Amino acid sequence: MSTHAFRYNRIPPNAEPLREQVRGFLAEALKDRSPLQRADSWMGADPEFSRELGRRGWLGMALPRRYGGAEAGPFARYVVIEELLVAGAPVSAHWIADRQSGPLILRYGTEAQRDKYLPGICRGERYFCIGMSEPNSGSDLASIRTRAQRRGDGWVLNGHKLWTTNAHYSQSMIALVRTGEKPASRHEGMSQFIIDLKSPGITIRPIRDLAGGEHFNEVYFDDVQLGADALIGTEGQGWAQVTAELAFERSGPERFLSSIALLHTLIDAIGKHPDALQAREIGRLAARLFTLRQMSLSVTAELAAGNNPAWAASCVKDLGTQFEQDIPEVAQLLLDLPPSAGGGSDHAQVLAYLMQMAPSFSLRGGTREILRGIIARGLGLR
């Protein structure tokens, strides 16, 4: 366990000035975007908006310049994504590629893989999804059964991935699959592959959620041919690679800002003269938000130092999603205004949307039970 986890961290002085640039851009770019649209921020895809971020150098920011990045460091990227999420920008198209696929390829990929994928990520043109969850596995990632078997110089892939966010418009997937035979440990014998989703033998089927969206997908692999260059990192080391990747997925501002649009409309609906209960509960939410932000920045500092703060990232995700799910409950406590999915005030519409979406927040990226097991191991309790 790192002794640096959750120490107080500030945005460095060289990164903070970027905030005003991003805010100015967003004020103009999103001026016609409604509160309900803003509530769908990191699940809302707009490829042209993603390309514009790429043109401004705000994607792949921490990647080396030779691949199209800015070598700006993780805190500069933190400033950009924080402003994007708070403003409710449509970031879903590039989100996974920028957040974790790019850093994973930089760390474990070959030079050919870096040259092939990283420039497109930085331009906002190359989108990735993550192939982890499977049917009948729940949150037990070690129980996956999708398998890649060697054939000649390449591999043949068969299996089924589930709850795959954005597979329907991503060009590529980084998938964790089994490659070994009868491993001594259930965490052994797994590898990661970069898969072209246009390859023959791949079927993608959308899963409609309660709010009517189709962000999640089932992905079927039927004798999919993979070249030798599809393997990323070291064969058999997929578990170690994917746990490092999950630290990026579980620690960012998106793990406590998914309901921020509702906090905005709630404050606007209450107005400038809250009663005692409203003032107290809004203050409590603000205090939790500030604390979660500081925890997230601490994990960012760990990642910047080259560490793998898996247990600390799990803390951010666990506490952050609880905060996100509590906001709709608090909103109903403070205002006698029912949710409305078919019209009504901005607050009523945003409340209806996030009431439907909030149950999924503690599922995506790992359930609470899985996260708390990771935290317990990190604290030496199991």
Characterise this structure.
By secondary structure, the protein is of the alpha+beta class. It contains twelve helices and eight strands. The protein has helices spanning about 20-30, 35-40, 45-55, 75-85, 90-110, 110-125, 240-250, 260-270, 275-305, 310-335, 345-355, 370-380, and strands spanning about 130, 145-150, 155-160, 170-180, 190-195, 200-205, 215-225, 230. The strands form two sheets. The chain has a four-stranded mixed beta sheet with strand order 1-4-5-8, with helices on one face. A four-stranded antiparallel beta sheet has the order 2-3-7-6, with no helix packed on it. A hairpin with a 2-residue loop joins strand 2 (about 145-150) and strand 3 (about 155-160). It starts with 17 loop residues before the first helix and ends with a helix. About 45% of the residues are buried. The mean pLDDT is about 90.
